[in-house]
Amino acid sequence: MKLLVVALVGLFFLGVPSLVAHRRRVQHLRWVIVVNVIGAFTGLFWFVALFMAMSMATRQPDRALAPGSQLGL
């Protein structure tokens, strides 16, 4: 049981860069995911993916989904 919990927590931490990039809505989310998946086992590329997720430019929000918009009407 302890091993399962440790494995789940470990998988969560491996996915943190991808989650951060998704949450920030970065423009090149796929690249962050690729670097994260490939580099998850080395550790070094995990930090690269996290840096990418934190420093990449974000996408502009849709006007239709923006608060206070009238859905493009």
Description:
The chain has 73 residues and is mostly helical. 62% of the residues lie in helices and 0% in strands. It has helices at 2-14, 16-24, 29-39, 44-55. It starts with a helix and ends in an 18-residue tail after the last helix. The model has no long low-confidence stretch (mean pLDDT 84).
SSE map:
Blueprint: H1 2-14, H2 16-24, H3 29-39, H4 44-55
Helix pairs in contact: 2-3, 2-4, 3-4
How many DSSP helices?
Answer: 4
* β-strand number: 0
Quaternary state of the chains = single chain
> What Rg is obtained from the alpha carbons, in whole angstroms?
16 Å
Could you give the distance between the termini?
A: 54 Å
The main β sheet shows up as: none
The helix-strand sequence is HHHH
Global morphology? flat
Mean pLDDT: 84
The low-confidence runs, each spanning 5 or more residues with pLDDT under 50, are none
> What class would the helix/strand composition place it in?
mainly alpha
Question: How large a portion of the residues is in β-strands, by DSSP E?
Answer: under 5%
- Percentage of residues in helical conformation: 55-70%
